[in-house]
Amino acid sequence: MTDQPFQAPKNQGAAGGTPPDRRANAAELKTAMEETLRLKGSEITTWARARIRSLDTTLAAALHGTELRDLDQLRRAVWKEMLTEVIMARTNALVASLGAKQADSVAKALKALSAAQHGLMLSQVHPLLPDMASYLGGQFAYDTDFWTGVERELAAFMADIAAYVQRMVRVERIVALRMASLDESRTLLRQRLDAATVLRGSVAAQGLEPYVGPLLKPIVLECQAAQQALQSLPDALLNQTGDQLRTAAAATEQAQTQLVTDIIGPPMDLCVAVESRLRVRMSRLTPETLQQLQVVPNLPAESRTAYVKLLDFYQVPWIHCVCALEPKVITRLLERCSRPTGMKALKDKVPTHDTTNLSMALEVLNNPKDEPDVACGKLKQLGFTRIPLPTGVTALSWHGVGPAWAPKAFSASSMETDLACIKHMVQELGPKPTLDKVATYFQDMVKACVTACAQWVKEGRPATFKASPIEVNGAEWHISVRNVADNPQVFHIDSGYEASVWTTR
What we know:
alpha+beta
């Protein structure tokens, strides 16, 4: 196939006259057949140029009736550039491939023409008119490699471009879905960051920053991470996606889809991860925690100093233990801890690297029935007999119940309690419960709490929720749950107070 202009034979007659007609010779027939195949080959470039000119209409038709019908012009321009590149590259490749078959195809067609004893006159082939080109091709060149190649490759070309247009719709759907997910994750992170900002302001306004440092510092760090994550702006990512797709116009659909995911996915995943971490950090520093600690800034300097020293020594477990106490109990505890003997007795009994027994030690040290020195002596002799915990349960603090220590607050994989709601255990277990009775009671309580939190999830995670009565092994549990950073926190538990079946078991 060639794009060279047709060179007609020179006239043989007198100057300015019409040459006499005659039979076309071999050279003239060859020129006519070359032009015939050239015209056939031009169908590819003609179709390609028309397709490029109509891309706006093609894209609009493909998007019409889909959720992408309002796709903005910048996104359409990306695909128009990509389609143009694909069409031009495919056209050039076909021209080169079919051009290599032209000479042999001309020779084959001329051989068929000669065998047909055609009797073609010069006036019939020069100039070569469309009807004669159609005749020569349809009668003598139709089965040549060039002719059949043009028809076969043009049909495949048309189908491939139509498929590429549909691919555009599919890939653009992926872009839209990824961007929607990114927007959602950014919105959630922004809301969480705003809530964290309010929380930090509340801590500062109440003068509690020195007393919640181990809980506050992770929130501050995650706020910084959130601000950094929000720096990846959607418009910039969308433009980057368009730029990268342009360079990957010839890539497979899978590769283009992966490219979209690789650009938009990481910023989205980062927002999700930071929001999740920030939510968990905030769930540890609740308004209830702050309310419990409001007594501390108003205590004498010696008590405040003792609090800070023990906070530095025990970190978060110290806060958990203190927040499980009533204000007047906190006041007495810090007064005793401010004494050198009290501070030493506590640190000697509970080392900083193992705070498991901290809440038990504090309960003994702070027993109002004992004078401070007596309490210190009992603390030195204290043994720790804890009930076994169900699988997946972690005690946040402990208290003495009969002959054993049982959790005063706990967490499990799907829920947690606040630091003070398990306060009816002693009342409901009756006098002198055995170790096994305390352990069984606690195990049933955990089952009831998990069931209540499942009800809370089913009801749409409301701010506060009173679960339907839950029966476990003959006892009826009454449990209330609240939403803390989108996680369930049990804030009330009872199985009937003095009327609980546990009192007589």
